[in-house]
Amino acid sequence: MEMKDLGEKESAAKHIVDVDATTSERAGISGFFEMLLRRFRTGAYLAALTPLYLIGILAMGISATPGVYIFTLIMDFSAEWAKPLHFGALACGLITSYFLYGFTLIFVIPFFNFHHALSA
What we know:
The chain is mainly α.
């Protein structure tokens, strides 16, 4: 039983991949792309994550739109009020906008996930 385990460990040790290598063991076009990904891993990381960040920014912007609208309405409506009342209304509008942003985000994010599931 111990000899079998030792043989499996040696076999597994032969298939260890050096993740820090900048060259590829593959040949042809797949080896070329692997070499590019290994050599320029920071650029590949940025190229892979930039679209995800842009989708996140878009989802957050869509979710913030109703809150910004409500805040602008309250700001315009209370502009002629006395300063303490105006600032109180703005504070309530800001908190309401933040709550509305979070609530809207709950519905917007699944839309992006559902769209991604359909395209995969």
